[in-house]
Specification:
Elements lengths: L1 H8 L4 H18 L16 H8 L5 E7 L7 H18 L4 E6 L4 H9 L5 E7 L2 E7 L1 E7 L2 E5 L8 H14 L5 H4 L1 E6 L21 H7 L4 E6 L11 E5 L7 H12 L3 E5 L3 E4 L8 E4 L4 H7 L3 E2 L3 E4 L2 E6 L3 E11 L17 E2 L6 E2 L9 E8 L4 E4 L22 E8 L15 E6 L17 H13 L4 H6 L13 H41 L10 H9 L1
Parallel strand pairs: 1-2, 7-8, 7-9, 9-10, 10-22
Antiparallel strand pairs: 1-5, 3-4, 5-6, 11-12, 13-18, 14-20, 15-16, 16-17, 19-21, 21-22
Length: 551
């Protein structure tokens, strides 16, 4: 026993105990999951909404992961991300949550995946010999009671958490009485609003339809079309959409919208201040003021939309052969500096496109202390207004020399206790949310892509989630979509940042190593001087070394 104690105290036991500690840490890491997320968008952290959903699961819910092994980049990253994500779900969930990972090299597991409604997908990769294709399984199945939901073709990690959480939330809520209203959106019709279908034979930008917009919402929402001529707005709906009406809305129908807001209803307004008219088929269209009266309703709340288009020097452009760069001034590009950072709708978003938007004046509503107003999107400081002789063609409607260039509000959010637009003395006791985007055309297939992955599509979808009281979904959906760039003023600064990025870490490690080395030498010298200053075998410098050799 005495020899064992002496061995433990001696340096000879250090290596053995180091191996034991490493072994124990590995055992602990197998049974626990810890990850440090240093990204500004918390891309690799589970959102609050996800934690709440899985934390309150009462009946057994299982996620089955069917993902092929040894996939090429970047698909292998998706597999690792999904595996880590399921571990985070498990660590934050109730005991009713579980997940399984299937080995897809086995035919029996492939049959199980097909029974859950999953199918293999083809992925293309670039190799030294050229392009190659591979069939792979990349999906999950979620089971909850008698409900089965499958999510297939998970080729990117950008929205995996959003898809999983919303699917879990929907299948759980499907058993609740108010689930239908929770995932239902009202869509006002009857005044030539944009139709929720695509028109491939459109003769104009404004006739393409909003088919992609409907597809964008259909993953968790069902849309209830409401004709105010024959029916009222159901009070159990959290939100309604008013999208680009072009015909006059009678006052009695406007009052139905106002009554809905007074009862705590939320509304997303997509308004075209100007409408397109064709006087002659052989002539260019003209743009006249919208006569739907929807702008008058908004003015009753203190939100005024000007009857003009915002043209912006910072805009979308096309490269045409023989003509070069063609600027589409009527399609402003809203970058991240022109949107609020700490807002659920716009956080993580940049590069939003708005088509033929108009200036929004919020000076009146800002006077109302009961309403919180937020500008969601504004043009750049190099924008101007076009009101007469508008031609949607590159090089037209340029600003005059005396034009006052300034940023314009293009989308706003107002939330709080509103006063009636028809009787200001009547104030709602319930809080409502109103989002106004001065471009109904931005919901059409001209802007909204079929995949729903563009910044504009995410912006529109976040608006609908926000007014439907699902704001937690917004940040979850846009994780990893924003690129954070460093603002560089000149080439010299850019070169310095580049060098720091390439060699900075190596230099820091070398400096730390040098400091540690010098500290160890200093410590040895101090100990030597304190306990054995007469021992000349200690070499503190070249001078001492020389003196020692002479003696």
């Amino acid at each position: 026993m005495k020899k064992l104690i002496e061995w433990i105290k001696s340096p000879a036991s250090d290596r053995f105990f180091l191996i034991v500690v490493i072994f124990l840490l590995n055992v602990v890491s197998v049974r626990s999951f810890v990850r440090l997320d240093l990204t500004s968008q918390k891309t690799y952290s589970l959102s609050k909404a996800s934690k709440n959903v899985v934390k309150n699961i009462e009946s057994p819910l299982s996620i089955k992961m069917f993902f092929s092994e040894d996939l090429p980049s970047p698909y292998n990253n998706v597999q690792q991300y999904l595996t880590d994500l399921l571990s985070e779900y498990k660590s934050n969930a109730s005991s009713a949550f579980s997940y399984q990972i299937y080995d897809m090299s086995k035919e029996e597991n492939q049959r199980i995946a097909q029974e859950y409604g999953l199918s293999p997908v083809q992925i293309d990769t670039v190799e030294t010999a050229g392009f190659s294709s591979k069939i792979a399984w990349m999906g999950i199945a979620i089971t909850y009671g008698d409900y089965i939901a499958s999510i297939d073709a998970l080729k990117t990690s950008a929205d995996i958490e959003y898809k999983i959480t919303t699917t879990i939330s929907k299948i759980i809520s499907a058993q609740e009485a108010d689930a239908e209203a929770m995932y239902q959106i009202g869509y006002i019709t009857g005044h030539k609003e944009y139709e929720l279908r695509s028109n491939r034979y459109a003769q104009s930008y404004f006739e393409t339809g909003a088919g992609n917009f409907r597809t964008l919402l259909s993953d968790i929402y069902s849309i209830k079309e409401i004709d105010l001529t024959h029916e009222n707005i159901p009070v159990n709906l959290n939100a309604i959409i008013i999208n680009g009406p072009k015909e006059e809305i009678p006052e009695d129908q406007l009052k139905k919208i106002d009554d809905y807001i007074m009862q705590g209803g939320n509304v997303a307004f997509f308004v075209d201040a100007l409408d397109e008219y064709f006087v002659d088929n052989d002539q260019l269209p003209i743009f006249l003021e919208n006569n739907s009266n929807i702008t008058k309703l908004l003015e009753g709340y203190g939100i005024k939309i000007d009857g003009s288009f915002v043209m912006d020097q910072k805009c979308f452009y096309q490269n045409q052969s023989g003509f070069g760069k063609q600027l589409l001034h009527w399609v402003p590009v809203i970058d991240k500096d022109s949107t609020p950072r700490k807002n659920a709708i716009t956080d993580n978003l940049g590069g939003i496109l708005l088509f033929c938007a108009s200036p929004i004046d919020i000076s009146e509503i800002e006077k109302n202390s009961d309403i919180k107003t937020t500008v969601l999107a504004k043009s750049s400081d190099e924008s101007w207004r076009a009101k007469e002789n508008i031609i949607l063609y590159p090089g037209s409607n340029l600003p005059s020399e005396n034009e006052n260039l300034k940023a314009e509000n293009l989308a706003v959010l107002a939330e709080g206790n509103f006063s009636s637009a028809f009787n200001p003395s009547v104030k709602s006791t319930l809080k409502s949310k109103i989002v106004v985007v001065s471009s109904g055309a931005s919901t059409t297939d001209v802007i909204v892509d079929s995949e729903g992955t563009s910044a504009t599509a995410l912006f529109l979808r976040n608006i609908i989630d926000y007014v439907n009281n699902n704001e937690d979904f917004c940040a979850m959906r846009t994780k990893g979509t924003r690129l954070d760039f460093i603002s560089i003023k000149n080439e010299k600064s850019a070169f310095i940042v580049k060098m720091l990025n390439e060699f900075g870490l190596a230099v820091v490690i070398i400096l730390i190593g040098f400091i540690v080395w010098r500290m160890r030498i200093a410590r040895r010298y101090i100990i030597h001087q304190k306990y054995n200053p007469e021992d000349k075998r200690f070499i503190s410098s070249k001078k001492n070394d020389k003196e020692g050799s002479e003696k």
